[in-house]
Design a protein that fits this description.
Number of domains: 2
Shape: elongated
Distance between the termini: 64 Å
Number of helices: 11
Number of strands: 9
Helix content: 40-55%
Structural class: alpha+beta
Radius of gyration: 20 Å
Strand content: 15-25%
Length: 218
């Protein structure tokens, strides 16, 4: 076992995730270059996985616990919340398995293709980035920020600029995304004001308001 792997293994960070701050604390007398060499040797030995510059994960045999992919997404790029297809699948609204974790961030868009999966972060300007977002237990002892179904749809509609209520109506959701009408009727429309005020996107707000009226005749 490499020196770095042994140190991190005994530290036992949750899910085996650690970063350059952890490295500096574990090896305070080492230069940045020396710590980089430790990382490179452990990666070549297959004991450490490099997720992005400055963020690492112990390889599976050396982890004492596991991190849900949603938690890992939040660690890779913050602030952010899991949204769009990933959140809709988590809430059971769409049947498809999602091959990557899609998150929304108020900062710049990023994508990381890592040994632990693909993590996509898409920028959605928002006055209140966490409007319609909840901290949920996504696995035992694993909590992550996840968009509510309504916020996930709002984020998705923001990027699907060709979708409008006048042209597409609820068919975009029931046919293209295959969301059941009963699930749409049960969306948390009480969050609509907060989400609309935060996103300030006329097309998205118009779509969601018409969606609410379609199912609740309000």
């Amino acid at each position: 076992m490499q020196t770095l792997t042994e140190k991190v293994f005994h530290l036992a960070p949750p899910g085996g995730f650690f970063n350059t701050t952890t490295l500096a604390a574990l090896f305070p007398g080492f230069s940045t270059g020396a710590r980089t060499q430790l990382v490179n040797r452990a990666c070549r030995a297959g004991e450490i996985l490099r997720l992005r510059p400055g963020a690492f994960l112990l390889a599976p045999p050396w982890r004492k616990s596991e991190l849900h992919s949603f938690v890992l997404a939040g660690l890779l790029h913050s602030p952010s919340h899991v949204s769009m297809e990933s959140a809709l699948a988590f809430h059971g609204l769409i049947p498809e398995a999602v091959w990557q974790v899609v998150s929304v961030t108020p900062s710049r868009s990023r994508e990381f293709s890592t040994p632990a999966g693909v993590f996509s972060f898409r920028r959605v300007p928002a006055r209140q980035p966490f409007a319609g977002v909840e901290s949920l237990e996504v696995a035992p002892k694993n909590s992550a920020f996840v968009a509510s179904p309504l916020r996930a749809l709002a984020d998705l509609l923001y990027f699907r600029r060709e979708i409008t209520w006048k042209r597409d109506g609820a068919g975009f959701l029931t046919k293209s995304l295959r969301i059941e009408e009963d699930d749409l009727a049960g969306l948390p429309f009480e969050q609509l004001g907060e989400i609309a005020s935060s996103l300030k996107n006329r097309r998205v707000c118009d779509y969601l308001k018409n969606l609410k009226a379609h199912f609740h005749h309000a």
